[in-house]
Amino acid sequence: MSDSTSLAHRLYRRLAAASSPAPPLRLTGAAVATGLCACFAIAALSLWPQLDGLIGPTGLSPVHERFALYATRLGEDAAWRLPGLMWLSPDVGTAKWLCAATILVAALALLGRLRPPLFLLLAVLYLSLFSAGLPFTGFQWDLLLIECGFAAVFLHPLTLRQAPAGPRPLGLLALRVVLAKLVFSSGIKKWLGDDGTWRELTALDFHFFTQPLPNPLSSLFDALPHPVLAAGTALTLGLQVFAPLLLFGPRRARLCGAWLIVVHQVGIAATGNFAFFNLLTLVLCLACLDDAHLRACLGTVSLHIRQARYAPHRALPAWRVVAFGLLLGPWLLLQGVALAAAVGLDDKLPSPLHALDEAASPLRLVNGYGLFVRMTTRRLEIVYQATLDGETWAPYELPHKPGDPDRWPTVVAPHQPRLDWQLWFAALNPQRPAPYCRTLQQRLLDQDDAVLSLFETSPFDDQPPRGVRAVLYDYTFDYAGPHVWAREPAGTFLPPVWRR
Q: Does the structure show a pLDDT above 50 at 303?
């Protein structure tokens, strides 16, 4: 046997071994698959009732108009630059059907059969919703969910049997790569960035009251003394950079790294509303555990868990190993490009890698992340107001954003009120209002029911207003006064528009 043939044979045996199910990981694989299905269903259920107000015919960014504009400007490249099933019929009804299909496919994937194509279909469906819902779906956890759906294709073997097959370590490894990149990128960008709040360990002095949607515990943590918050900032920086490195070490190091990330994510979830991001990250942490550790954590509860019966383990045939390599190879290369970009070395990469990254970027299979790389130090809120007489102005109240100074923050995660979030981002640059901000002003003037459904209260339910404007307030927690929030006027965001 020649040296080249021997090398190819050894490589095949290693890939086949890595792709074969490992008995100690069966509970882990089931937990990861269940968690991912839950995240897809939650994301679709959360988005569905908001679609009319966001992208409906009279919504803030009508999907049929936007796709027509894409087709005009991009021509034949439009379907590739903005991929998805929405091109079949770009209207809000199609988006609702995609939400229903996402929930149905997630339920089917729970059964354990045909999980690879079902997870691929989930990724395609949510990519289609991502394209349909822009700019209200452009959040990092939306991208993360698409990426996880593709990585989960490698999690379980393709089977039609009644008994589901156990997970492949190669699939768990792919999910660990996604988790490590997510956390490490967010940490290293803070280390290398020029944000003074992270360098001076003051980031958490601002985070709890400036985050998009605080919850009832946010004010308690915001009131902690600076030394405690500075220590939390330092721990965050250290954890996000070094914990991901442990995920690829020996078992004890991997478990330690996973639990460090779990504790950090639970802390974030306990002090703010970040949609399904924390839940999805915790599901990725499960990919770092094994059955023995999960049963030890569950204790006596594990005795009541029905022992799943799994199909016999069989090594992959050669053609499947080759197919795995052809899919995972470019995917891992793209992960390397994303990590290089996170540490500022993307300009050192060869041009073929840049070309591969640019060609694959519309599919959102590999994404860059950087949560709270730049900390906001001031909370500006946009408040839309209406008037009947041109003198007295009354506010529209969003369901979960700070508005009324006496209203306590709410717990809304894993649901994501998309307009609440998007107006938080719009307030970061009040000098250049986003197009949907002006559209929102006009829709409120017209008393559009679809857009009004995104709000909790409207000042004049029985008659249309004469004028609508948007003003800015500077918010902080009110520790000295009788209110939950203290606010000061900060100028005009949009001047009034009047009914003819």
A: no
Burial of 299 by CB count in 10 Å (0-12 exposed, 13-18 middle, 19+ buried)? exposed
Give the neighbor-by-neighbor strand order of the sheet with 393-395. 393-395, 379-387, 467-477, 485-498
Q: Which structure tokens are listed for 168?
A: 């492949």
Amino acid 298: pLDDT: 75
For the chain, percent of residues with pLDDT exceeding 70: 88
User: Please, what sign has the CA dihedral across residues 416, 420, 426, 428?
Assistant: negative
User: Worst-scoring range by mean pLDDT, 20-29, 46-55, 303-312, 375-384?
Assistant: 303-312
Verify that 403 and 309 share a domain, yes or no: no
Residue length, the chain? 500
Q: Evaluate the omega torsion of the peptide bond into residue 414 and state whether it is cis, within 30 degrees of 0.
A: yes
How many structural domains comprise the chain?
Answer: 2
- Note the pTM of the prediction, 2 decimals: 0.90
75 is in which domain, residue-wise? 18-363
Same domain? For 354 and 257 the reply is yes
